Automatic annotation (TrEMBL):
Biased composition (Low complexity): 166-187
Alphabetical list of PROSITE patterns matching this protein: TAT
Region Disordered: start-end pairs: 129-187
Bias (Gly residues): 137-147
Domain of life according to the entry: Bacteria
InterPro entries: BOBF_sf, TAT_signal
Species the sequence originates in: Sphingomonas aliaeris
Protein name: Uncharacterized protein
Length: 187
């Protein structure tokens, strides 16, 4: 055998093969994520009047006009009332809706506002906004610290302040008295 036939592949060839495998793995991962991601389709639901919303409702749909915008939260108004809707992170840039726009929102209404999962614009475009529940930080916030939920599911009330000290007569300070010692003559 000659030197040329027993020669090992160069490092450059190994580098090219490794880069090709990494690119193939990245493309395969992207395809897998796209194929397994849930589609942005709304569950069929009849819009309800905002005044009929109750905490703890399962998935609800409301329809109305955007009355006000506060960062990632909007106020939607219909003929029966108004509701605060949290659009989540997707609503932070302020480009999803504009004041006066007719929208349909589907999500979960709890504790006085709605956590939106889907937003349908006047043009019929469906935007998936995220999970319908809030962040899962445990019973008392991040790391489980903080007050525990009370008996009705809300946060427990803060502890009462300590009792006031009993009123007493003002203390009178006794000033120390100094006594003078007379020097004695030495004998």
């Amino acid at each position: 055998m000659t030197e040329e036939t027993t020669r090992r592949p160069s490092r450059r060839k190994f580098g090219l093969i490794a880069a090709a495998l990494v690119a193939l793995g990245g493309a395969g991962g992207a395809i897998t994520v796209a194929a397994t991601r849930p589609s942005a389709t709304m569950a069929p639901a009849v819009p309800v009047a905002i005044s009929a919303l109750k905490s703890g409702d399962s998935v609800v749909t409301i329809r109305g006009r955007v009355d006000q915008i506060y960062g990632n939260k909007i106020v939607i108004a219909d003929a029966s009332g108004r509701a605060l809707v949290d659009l989540g992170r997707e609503g932070e840039d302020g480009t999803l809706v504009s004041a006066g726009q007719a929208v349909t929102v589907q999500g979960r209404f709890d504790r006085g506002f709605m956590r939106a999962a889907f937003l349908v614009g006047a043009d019929g475009k469906v935007t998936a906004l995220g999970p319908m529940h809030g962040p899962d930080h445990g019973p008392g916030g991040p790391g489980g610290k903080g007050p525990r939920p009370g008996p009705d599911g809300d946060r427990a009330a803060p502890p009462p302040p300590p009792p006031a000290a009993p009123a007493s007569a003002p203390a009178t300070a006794v000033a120390p008295t100094a006594t003078a010692v007379a020097p004695t003559a030495a004998k």
